[in-house]
Design goal:
This protein is about 50% helix and about 15% strand. The protein is of the alpha+beta class. The longest helix is centred in the C-terminal third of the chain and has 29 residues, at about 285-310.
Length: about 400
Amino acid sequence: MDFNYSPEQEAYRQQVRAWLEANQPPPLTAEERERISEDLLWERNKRWHRKLYEGGWVGLSWPKEYGGRGATFVEQLIFQQELARLNLPIGINVLGIIMNGPAIMQWGTEEQKQRYLQPILRADEIWCEGMSEPGAGSDLAAIQTRAELHGDEFIVNGQKVWTTVAHRADFCQLFVRTDTEAPKHKGLSALIVDMHSPGVTVKPLRQITGDAEFNEIYFDDVRVPKKNLLGPLNGGWQVLVATLMHERFGISETVAGSDVILTQLVELAKSTVIDHASAAQDPAVRQQIAQFAIEATAKKYNGLRSLTRRLKGLPPGAESSIGKLVSTELSQKMTRFAARLLGPFATLERHSHFAPEGDWMRRMLWAEALTIAGGTSAVQKNMIGERILQLPKG
């Protein structure tokens, strides 16, 4: 395989780089840093999303008929690499773009595609995923939230948990049990639920980072039009698996953070003093950073497997589990190592006057969450073992 980019792709990279450098958001002001909050960052990223959308950079690989640019997945990858190089956010409505939109394109009716896809790209309507429940975390086939069909409406009752951005969402791709008599993988369906419907209650969950972007959702006799069924009735397991594959592909590509964290880790080592010398001169530190660089490079080349599959016109497969597993666990290891270099300073929150650059404490805590989101690392290992290595089930 030729890993080099073509002259046309390199020219595209220069186009992306020039636009991002000319249009990137200004750094936070001193006043903004003092009162930094989730709401402030959301509004800031919302403005950035609008600028990206107007520049034609949102949903690059989406078909033109649905508002995308119809770009190749290589061009999408180049764009994400350039975002990461400048350490820029990818905007808002991330789940809508990497999960809900692709799921609607794959499973939705023409009416659903026309109704929902364009507002997802513009971030006029924010989306969330209704999957995990208190009794169905990793085992999503155990979902108990029920939807009973009465005439032209489903009546939904149940609870979801760990639902990202549900407190800001306008719609939810909700997975429910529609046949209680069928085997657990056979009786599920996917619904498009208006989060402003009567009977929907959202309760934010405060995380260890101090943020509250995860939520509980309660559904109490929520009425959902039958036309909002996404995919076949009682065929929701296939929709769920496809949606998760899109998510894992998206996470493995957008936790682009591996290269960014590695670069920042090198700078941190240079500026940190150990035994009256730069930590970057310590052989053990240098060896560990070199190991991270090796793993980041291996991750990048392994990621080309998923990219090759997409270039062939195929949906993401089980190989996306490798990218998700490696990306999240490598980020976790690097942020932990940063904490070791910083010592007690790693425990300072970003509001502290003495906090080091990089907000390492929050990033270390958030890295733990990423090994759970989109399917735990244990689940990913099972999928790799069973679906790629063809190992017998334990």
